[in-house]
Design goal:
By secondary structure, the chain is mainly α. It is built from twelve helices and two strands. The longest helix has 97 residues.
Amino acid sequence: MDTFGASISEAKNITTGNPYDCLIEMEGFKCRVDDMISKVDELEQKVNDIEIFFSSTNKRQNNMDKGNSSTKDKDKEKHVPSIKKQNKVATRREAAAAKRMQDLMRQFGTILRQITQHKWAWPFMQPVDVEGLGLHDYYEVIDKPMDFSTIKNQTEAKDGTGYKNVREICVDVRLVFTNAMKYNDEKSDVHVMAKTLLEKFEEKWLQFLPKVTEEETRREQEEAEAQLSMQLAQEAAHARMARDLSNEILLIHVLNLLKRLNLLSFQLYDVDVHLEELREMAVKKFRKMTTDEKRKLGAALARLSPEDLSKALEIVAQNNPSFQATAEEVDLDIDAQSQSTLWKLKYFIEEALEKQSKNSGSTSGNENHNNKNKRKQESCDAVAKASKNKKPT
């Protein structure tokens, strides 16, 4: 944008100097105008590409309603519950699982009552009276004391510190008996009573175990399904976010392109105005070309390559609509041309001959003398042939 602004200011400042320099400045400024036009065309192409993209997107969305694969994917996304809804479902599922486990623990309570009502259960109903019985080494042997009154309190706890799983109760029941067997001698009554009750408990536990296993399997399946559903919900949320973000970015890009396009359009209009002023100013400053200069100009035309000669004739045609630059034979009257056309021709011819000279010098440095003479002769023949078809006078 700064370059374009500088070009406009340059056009405003070209008010002095000889007409030939003014013509050169005007041609350079025209090249910058051409660059601006190409950039405008490029921006318009980008805008068109994005419009086509949005148009095709809308068509795909319309086709979705008719049942193509994209519709199925979008419908599938719609049917995936949101993360918030998944969390609510998870809460209800966990509550239901906890309720089922509570039912299992109540059923397990029947086994506990059968064990605790046994005639040999009395030593294990309350915590061991370590001080009253003088068992000074009890805590050295037993790491975690346990009894059925403690198990009962833990089962009935309402403050959230109670048992969460029936297996936890099973572990503590075993601990009651294993502690007694560990501390008391094998031949003691307490040891024998504990061993007998433990065997009865294990027998009843094996009968109850399938219910526990079934519930645990169901819990694992539900958690796996919940995890998959949550993953799908997260992916769907990410897809929606990505799609919304992509559309937003594209929209911002289009708006920015349109802003740049409008700005360039205003600048281009300003450039056209100043370029026209520059042309008028340059024509006014052209001095009249002398007869000798016109003669030299006609001679220089004959030295141009066929391609450059065609370009030179096109310059004449630009300011003289009746002149047929592409005709089989061309009759160019140098004296009949305007001063601006003559000076444009002079500028173009000098530049073209300079390029021809450079190209000729570069080629001669890399090739032998015979090839150079051959190409020179071919070039002369081509110029002669062009001059034969298009004869400036």
